[in-house]
Amino acid sequence: MISLSIVKEPFSFFLSFFLSFFLSFFLSFFVSVCGIRVKEHTSIYLSIYLSIYLSISPFIINCLIYFFVSDALFLSLYFFISLYSLSLYLSKSVHNLSIYLSIYLSLFIIYLSIYLSQSVHNLSIYLSQSVHNLSIYLSQSVHNLSIYLSISVCSYLSIYFVCNSLIPT
């Protein structure tokens, strides 16, 4: 924590001198890049005016330094704002994601139910066709077997009766 007693006049004078030098350089560069026609010493006059203003008001600089450095007020404010905006963004993103997921899952379930019902329908048709074919095959087999058995039984009985009639009693 920096107290106000450390930051005195030399610091504000150095800061005003540095700012006036920077502004003089920046203004001359800006004027040369933009091609604005001004008097030769306008940027120097503006930087001198600013340096005088900053040297007259050291209280403002001390307050700014005190608020921005001590207890990390600026940093905590910045983190608070950024975390608050991040939490708003994340809550909105999670809300949108939940909407998208619910829509996607409901469509997926509808598609899956249609697909499964179609598959079950096709499977039932296939199984009923197979059972029908099997029943036709079995009925023909049983019919042929019954014909074969009836012929066999008839021939056996006829042979039995013929043999029985030939044997004297």
Automatic annotation (TrEMBL):
Domain of life (superkingdom): Eukaryota
Keywords for this protein: Membrane, Transmembrane, Transmembrane helix
Transmembrane segments: 12-36, 48-67, 73-90, 97-116, 147-167
Name this polypeptide is given: Uncharacterized protein
Organism, scientific name: Acanthosepion pharaonis
